[in-house]
Amino acid sequence: MSSMERICVVVCGVLLLMSTASVGWEQKHDYKLALSKSLLFFEGQRSGKLPPNQRLTWRKDSALRDGQEGGVDLTGGYYDAGDNVKYSFPMAFTATMLAWSIIEFGDGMAEGGEWINAAETLRWNTDFLLKATANLPNTVYAMVGNPNSDHNCWERPEDMDTPRPVYAVNTTHPGSEVAGEIAAALAAASIAFKNYDAAYSWRLLSKAKEAYYFANKYQGSYNDAIGHAVCPFYCDFSGYQDELAWAGAWLNKATNTKKYQKHVDAAIRKIKFMEEVTQNYYIDTEFSWDNKHAGLYVLLSQIGQYKKEAQTFACGVLPESPTRTIKYTPGGLLFKTEGCNSQVVGSLSLLALIYAKHVRLARERITCGNTKFPAWKLVEFAKNQADYILGTNPMGMSYMVGFGPKFPQRIHHRAASLPSINAHPSFIACGNGFSYLDNPNPNLNELTGAIVGGPNTGTDHFDDDRRQAAQTEPTTYVNAPFVGVFAYFINHKK
């Protein structure tokens, strides 16, 4: 048994002892299997030199020279979606969600036999984020690849021959949102790894502090610094104050202090001021790679801060709440966006479970107007969303590839749709792959565990068509929160 495995035995044993009380839910789906597959998906998104234990063997090494144009090693990490570009901002949010899932619901991962896989999935991400912050205190690398040339190709990552420029933010061209989210991710991951690999945890926390100092001292949006590259793909629409507050809150948690509290409060005051000025109120049900508002308040509520705002989130999503702001499809799926709606489903479901855990432990109830709800109503909400994704829906379709008898066969994903190197060793040029995009046949490779965008019109209809990217494209930040959701329900059943 390796030292890593011995540590996991100890950690997983402790996590199992920490398991929260079970709730009597009907287990409609195999959540252990869902957890296993949701983690396997990330192996299909890996960039760089693949390890010997790579399980999705139709994927091979790719982008082995990333970073050379900037004189830095930026190999590794994850392709964010069905293309071949690497964006540090959504990749960091993915890491934060994976880390938070491990922190809160690692007991379910241990029982499901997936704790090591979850830790390795997170580490593949944080190893890249450490590279992206290697030149701090002056530079954070925000992106690798030219999105326009990449999107003009339908090409396997193994064959990629498009330009791989490096985009960075620095002291004169700042990017507080990307640096702030990286700081949050590294701080959260330092907690997840603390009892697993103490030296790595310390390294993560040290770099998180550096990233936060950079983000906070040199404030500005990467929209202004490198917007020509990141927009319209990953523009920051909500401003960067939420990332500054989010990062400060995670650093407080990781250091078990209130050292960053004044920065957190200052950023939240600016957020609230802008909400009043613009009449754009985000705090209720906004939580994504771009917008941290609801997640921030749920995190802070765990230490008794901003409880009102956290309750506003809960009341905004509960179907029976008199102050509900979320819409639902006739089949019960929460509907918020026509662009990859599943990312909202996953992130808000994870938040609901984390907040429900806190409310239950505090022996409190959720007050929405004149109505009070027990914590288990939030659990019920999250379970209904998870079950819908896994197949309890009017289409009778699982929106996770490889799960259940019926699932999407034509996902919007270059590597999955093109023949693998195993099947077709010869090079497939940039433009030659579009015949596979337009082909009506199922994908040639199964990207097992990928959760696609799902129904996106406010109805329950889904088009299994790889040309409909909003419905059929998977992303890392869709899967990441579902890792925690599925882990939770492994331990919460009849």
Question: Could you characterize the architecture of this molecule?
Answer:
The chain starts with a helix and ends with a helix. Helices cover 48% and strands 5% of the residues. The protein is built from 18 helices and seven strands. β6 and β7 form a beta hairpin. The strands form three sheets. A three-stranded antiparallel β-sheet has the order 1-2-3. A two-stranded antiparallel sheet has the order 4-5. By secondary structure, the chain is mostly helical. It has one domain: Glycosyltransferase, CATH 1.50.10.
Query: What ranges have pLDDT less than 50 throughout 5 or more consecutive residues?
Result: 1-23
Mean pLDDT: 93
Compute the number of helices.
18
Report the strand count.
Answer: 7
Q: How would you describe the shape?
A: globular
Number of domains: 1
H-E order: HHEHHEHEHHHHHHHEEHEEHHHHH
* CATH fold naming: Glycosyltransferase
Distance between the terminal alpha carbons, to the nearest Å? 34 Å
Major sheet strand order: 1-2-3
What is the level-2 CATH architecture name?
A: Alpha/alpha barrel
Q: What is the oligomer described by this structure?
A: single chain
Give the class from helix and strand content and strand pairing. mainly alpha
Main sheet: strands, sense, barrel: 3 strands, antiparallel
Q: What's a concise summary of this model?
A:
This protein has 494 residues and is mainly α. It contains 18 helices and 7 strands.
What is the element layout, followed by pairings?
Layout: H1 3-17, H2 31-44, E1 86-87, H3 88-111, H4 115-132, E2 139-144, H5 147-151, E3 166-170, H6 176-192, H7 198-217, H8 222-230, H9 241-255, H10 261-278, H11 293-301, H12 307-317, E4 327-328, E5 334-335, H13 342-361, E6 366-368, E7 371-373, H14 376-390, H15 414-417, H16 434-438, H17 469-472, H18 476-491
Antiparallel strand pairs: 1-2, 2-3, 4-5, 6-7
Helix pairs in contact: 1-3, 2-18, 3-4, 3-6, 3-18, 4-6, 6-7, 6-9, 7-9, 9-10, 9-11, 11-12, 11-13, 13-14, 13-18
Signal peptide: 1-24
Domain Glycoside hydrolase family: 31-485
Pfam family, one: Glyco_hydro_9
